[in-house]
Each structure stands twice: as structure tokens, then as C-alpha cells.
């Protein structure tokens, strides 16, 4: 009880001062959340290692050197080498680039589709709404992973080039993931469009496009940010699962998931854990960090959840 | 209520049609078919054509869709090309293996989640709460296959406590109680991993629900009456915190029967998920399509069930 009283007093003191802008207040709430900050630091660190780290590596990607194959971690190769004598640390950093990029862009695709369709459904209601939300229902009821696996198998059958495949993968994961955000955005827009500022835009005679993208969308940006952050975590997990099954990102391009598929070989699995444990930990750490950030953002951006 | 359920069931029809078209279209995109995927060296072009005719693979896509959907409506999912048995029978053969794991991990994860959620809400900001929160996030971020592999390496290969995979010890041929013990021994690790995967978000759910409830006035009243803290938390608060969770049970429905595709592969568990994965790689269309539709139907029914349960559990919600 006493804690609550104390926090109330603190709040009243704060409000006497110059009120913060909503974004600044959100930033303050976010930085007070220690777990979320930790996540952010870890994620930044991960990005730095993956994108800048390879520049300092004395090795080159796909540089086969059979004389140093299957080495355990040592001074020259910090995480050892694989059966072709490639440096695992370098491969892992480059794999991180791929996995992070796939996660980010796939989520970007989901967000663009989800936010746009959600806004259209919420703004136009009636037929448009029914059509879009019915489609969303259909997509939501599709079993996600199985469909991704089938589509991945199709990519393998079509013999898509390994580097083009990454783009298809982003597209597939992105297109299948738009429904959740669309629902959230639609719900918000439905209430927002009845508010007074929208009457003002009516009075000004603005065009629909301007009303939706300039006046309604900015109000749903907090939801979009939170949902997108958590979406990146999900997309990275999907990509890694597909790559592990050999139908996501395929060799010679490394990704964390396909590096783990080294464990499918019994000898590598038992005797050479340095081949597959480090990339697995990378996935775990990165996804945890992103989830922590997403949760912190939700608390920071949604004032209703402040007390949790 | 009855009217509501009937209307919802009718609404499922267009959704099902949409799903069936998408699923069929995707599978029709696959170049190559069961015959080419078999990749048999003795297969001549003529023989392949003959086989395609027998399996009906030579017909145009649209015609194949209508044949298939017509059969589906009458409950005939066709014969699995790979198992040479009706799809429904193959599903029935394997789905229970998946169900056992899913069922126990459901029980375990609800049990753990309720306790962890309640205590971390009760002692909010305590060390226990912080540890639980971190654990929740780790569980929500686990790549299932990696954690499965890691557990096999640690517990089965290095420590030798658990079997490496499979469902029974090869050549043991145990029956009765011995068989059950053998299976339990094999299912321990996969069940633990599956439980970890679902416990995270559940715990979070209970923690949030509990935090909301214990701030309410009636809880203060209960304490003021001088009730024991245990009675307040577990009898008065938990009941209301559990209420919205009933809807989650509906969403768990598909997971009980869908099989954990990736985990079953990792643990070589003979469940329906692994059979499904295999059916995709050998292009066993009838099974692949039939089971995908089966999963979609379960998802839809699960959603409906959770809405209905919500109405039953909370009299403030009126279903129209």
C-alpha cells in the first residue's frame, strides 16, 4: 500500500514541471526498464559484431583450407573450423547479417501490408472491411509453419538460386505474417475515425489518402512499433527453423539456422559441438533481446499498461 | 447461444473454402509430383505416365481441385500415396503419439504457469519475480530445434540419462506396464522442451491477470476480513484471474493434435508431425493437403470454442 502512495506523490510532482511530449515520456519510461535496456544493448552489440566484426577477421568467406579442417576452438580460430576448414566465427558473423536482415525485411513487409490493409478496413468499413478481415481470418487459420515448409520445399524444387532465395524467403515470411497487425490497426482506426479531429479533416475537405496516412496513421504508430519489434523476433525464429530443415537460407550462404543443421550429422553433433552450439546461442540471445525490447516498448508506449 | 454457435459454424464455410483454395493452389505450384519425387531408377516415362493416370495426377488443376474438395466434403480424404492407406487411417495411426506429448506438456505448462504467475504477481518486483520474468522471455525466444538438440547432447549423449530419440527401446518388445514405462522414459525430454516452449507466454498471461485482480477492491475487502493470505490469493484472486484463461484452452485445441513438426523430427518421435514433414518432402499430396485442412479446421473450431467458453465463463459477455 505504502508503495502506491509514494509513487502517486512522485507522479504529482512530475506533472508540476513542464509536461513532457508523449514520445519523450515514452523514452523515459523505456530507459527506466532495466531488462529492456539490457536487451537493447545486447542487440546493438549483436549488430556491431555481425556487420563490423567480419572486417577484422583475417579469413575470407568460403575460403576452403582442408589442412585446418575440423579444428576445435583455438587461438587462430576462436570458434574452430568446419569440415572444409572454414572459420566458424567468421561464418557465424556473416550468418548473423543474413538472419538479422531476413528478420527485419520480412517484418517490414508484414508491417506495410498489415498496417495498410488494417487502416483501409477500419476507415472504409462495410464491404472493404468485411473483405479484408475475412481474408485475414483465412490467413490466420492457415497453419503457419506447415505452409512455410511447403513453400520452402517449392523454392527448392524450383531450384531458385541461393542468393535469390533469401528474397523469396523474406517475401514468404512477410506475406504470411500481416494479419495480427492488421487486426490491431483496424480496431484502433475504427475508434479514431469517430474522433473530433477527423471531423476537422472532413471540414477541411481532405482527400481520403491524406486523412488515412497523415492523420490516422500517426496515431497508430506506437502499436506498429511494438508489433513490428516482436514480429522481428518471430521472423528470425521462422527463418532459423526453415534453414535448419534445409529449406530456408541454403548453403553456401550461411545463416544461423543452416549452421545448426550441421548437428544432423551424428559425428559433428557429438564430437564437434562448436559447429552448431554457437549459432544456436546467437539465435536465442538475439531473439530474447528483441523480445525484451518489444516488451519494454509496449510498456513505454502504452500508457494504460504503465503500472505493470 | 445455440443460434450463435450455428451462425458461427455457417460463417466458417466461406473461410474454409478460402483456405482450401489457398492450400490447394500452393500445392499445385509444386513442380514435380509423387512420381518424380520417388526418383526410382527403374521408372520409365511410360510407366510414370501410367502411374500418374492411376493417381489422377494427369488431370488439369481445376478439375483436380473439385474432385478433391468433393471427396473432402464426404469425409474422404483419399489414400496416402506413401503409406498406401486412407489418409484418415494414417492420421489416426500417428496422431495419438503426438497427442500424448502435447497433452502432458499442456498439463505441465498450465501447472507451472499458474504457480509461477501467481507467485511472481504476489511478490512483484522481488528477486523471484525478476527471475521468472527473465525465464519467461527466454522460453518465448527458444528455437525449439536448437534446445532439443542441446538437451539430447547434454542429457542423452554426455550424461546418458535419457534415450537419444524414438518412442520405444528397439528390440525390447515390452508390453503392458513395462511398455508404458518405456514410452514415458522416451517422452520425457520432448515433453520438457515442448512445455518450455509454451510455458513462457502462459506464465506472462497469468502474471498480468493476477496483477490486475489483486489490485481490486474485493481483494482488499477479503484481506480486511482477516482471511488467510493463502485463501485470498488462491481462492478469491486466482479464480478471477483464471477466468479469461479459459479462452486459451480453445486455442490449445489444434496444438494437441497437430504434432510438433520440428521437435518430432529432432527427437525421432513417431508422431503425426514427422509423418507430415515427410509427406511434404515426398509430395504425398493427399496426406499433405488432408492434414493441412485438418489443422485449419481444428484452428477454426478452437477459435469458436474459445469464444463460446468465454461467454460461458463470464456472464458479462453476451454472445450475439
Automatic annotation (TrEMBL), chain A:
Q: Which GO terms describe its cellular component?
A: plasma membrane
Tell me the keywords, alphabetical order.
Cell membrane, Membrane, Transmembrane, Transmembrane helix, Transport
Classify the source by domain of life: Bacteria
Q: Which GO terms describe its biological process?
A: transmembrane transport
Indicate the transmembrane segments per the record: 35-56, 98-124, 136-154, 166-185, 216-238, 274-294
Just give the chief location class: membrane
Q: Which PANTHER family match?
A: D,D-DIPEPTIDE TRANSPORT SYSTEM PERMEASE PROTEIN DDPC-RELATED, OLIGOPEPTIDE TRANSPORT SYSTEM PERMEASE PROTEIN APPC
Cell membrane as a keyword of this entry, yes or no, is: yes
Q: Where does the ABC transmembrane type-1 domain lie?
A: 96-294
Regarding protein family, the annotation reads:
Belongs to the binding-protein-dependent transport system permease family.
Q: What is this protein called?
A: Peptide ABC transporter permease
Give the bilayer topology: Multi-pass membrane protein
Family annotation (InterPro entries): BP-dependent_transpt_permease, MetI-like, MetI-like_sf, Oligopeptide_permease_AppC, OppC_N
Q: Where in the cell is it found?
A: Cell membrane
- What are the leading ranks of the lineage? Bacteria, Bacillati, Bacillota, Bacilli, Bacillales
From TrEMBL, chain B:
Per the record, the coiled-coil ranges are none
Q: What is the protein name given in its UniProt record?
A: Diguanylate cyclase
Q: Name the PANTHER family for this protein.
A: INNER MEMBRANE ABC TRANSPORTER (PTHR30465), OLIGOPEPTIDE TRANSPORT SYSTEM PERMEASE PROTEIN APPB (PTHR30465:SF0)
Q: Which InterPro entries match?
A: BPD_transp_1_N, MetI-like, MetI-like_sf
Transmembrane annotation, as ranges: 12-30, 94-119, 131-164, 184-206, 241-263, 287-310
* GO cellular component term of the entry, any: plasma membrane
Q: Where is the ABC transmembrane type-1 domain?
A: 95-306
Q: How does it sit in the membrane?
A: Multi-pass membrane protein
User: Where does this polypeptide localize?
Assistant: Cell membrane
Which family is it part of? Belongs to the binding-protein-dependent transport system permease family.
Name the UniProt key words of this record, in alphabetical order.
Cell membrane, Membrane, Transmembrane, Transmembrane helix, Transport
Source species, please? Paenibacillus selenitireducens
Q: What is its main location?
A: membrane
Q: Name one GO biological process term.
A: transmembrane transport
